[in-house]
Amino acid sequence: MPSLEQVPARFSALRCLTGGATFGAGLGLVAALTAGGCRGEDLYFDCGEQETKFRDVADDEGQLLDPTPQGEPYPVALKFSEEGLNRLLEGVVGQDVPFTGELPFVWFSGPGTLHFEATSTPVIELESLEGCPTCVQYSLDFNVVLIGANGEPEGAGVGSVKFRIPMLLEPDGERATILYADYTKLRVQDLWLSAFGLETEEHEALVAALGLFMEEKIQENYGKTELLRLDSWEIGNNDVRLLARKLIVFPEDDTLAVAMQSNLPLPPGGGLEITGTMPLGVPMVVDFDIAMFEAMVERLLEEGEIPRVYNEDGEPDEDGNYGVTMDFIHGAPAGQEFMTSQFKVWRFADGYCGYAVAQMDLDVDFDSTDGISLTPSEVVVIGGQGSGAVAAQEQDLVEENQDVVDTFRSGVADNLATTINYDALAIEGSSIVFETLEKDVLVDHLEVWIDFFVVADP
Questions:
Q1: 330 contacts 340 by C-beta, under 8 angstroms
Q2: With the CA atoms of 280, 285, 289 and 293 taken in that order, what torsion angle do they form, in degrees rounded to the nearest 10?
Q3: Which of 143, 214, 338, 425 is most buried when burial is the number of CB atoms within 10 A of its CB?
Q4: Band (384; pLDDT cuts 50, 70, 90)
Q5: Which of 458, 450, 388, 377 is nearest to 413 (CA)?
């Protein structure tokens, strides 16, 4: 380590507060914090003081909320277009359309039984349905056959029906939520029938009564039908939760939003403003509050998934003398496809201590699998305290050994990419294949536009 006499006089205490140096390809932040300059009685350089500060900051980072909050603010939202919901429904009901049954019926020919069976896959329509803000409307066509008391067919016909079904969310253990269609609360909205002389226009009261019988029969035969299972991230120690908490129907936008909550704490003012707006032709959007990414990195630092403490060789070492803490992550101005992170690299041993404040951009792009990838940029030192302030002033001090920053950079980029490529959605008996179409980075949130299709398991 250079001695104090080797440090140019311009590194006086007055010059050790601010500055800016691009580390570039030859970054040496570890060397910057080890080099001499500005030594003295100032607590800014005192190793005990700096380690205490570092430990205090590190102890505050990465704590999880317990229990996971129920309501706002929400850090994540899944949004499905009407087309997207119909794809999910088709994957669920492909083998068992929930509209088949028998009803006792008396017609001019005498008592008999109506047998009705769907002839089309149900279509979901997102309508404004009074008294049920989380209901969706199903519509389908069906055939009907009248079987007489002697067991012989006495007539047949066709019909169509629209009924509303409440959607509801229920937890499944501590890490998952299930989206159900609750057929026990189904209500027929509209029924049209043309069969064996029974026309809706001519027998409205009778057809309405038949609709009530249909409601009861479907409610009896079908309970809550699982549409979609939403799991938490598989990341770090798997202690981070992501749970669906609220359904929001936007009939004017033909959108269903699933507001999701996490046990990662958001900073004051954090949380998404969830709207029904979706890009045209895109079946699914995942929307992230960028402030949550800071909390995710802090948690992974706490768990050791991203190393927090390093030795003088830049290797992860709990007994080392270098440490990292986060300041923030936010999006770029409109039209810029990157996020900016700010963090501190601390030195708190061997007689010359402080921290450097550094910024690093994360370019948001696509990887070879069509998922989202993050590419970290060069690191820029913008200020610091103690030895870190010296690093901000003089490029000569930061030209060796960048292992600490390299390890941190890759840990942040890889783990945030895992966070953004959320695909923990499942349909029982089927597989969902996702394709990322586009991404949109804004100052406070990041959207991922996704196409998908459902394939029945063999």
A1: yes
A2: -130
A3: 214
A4: confident
A5: 377
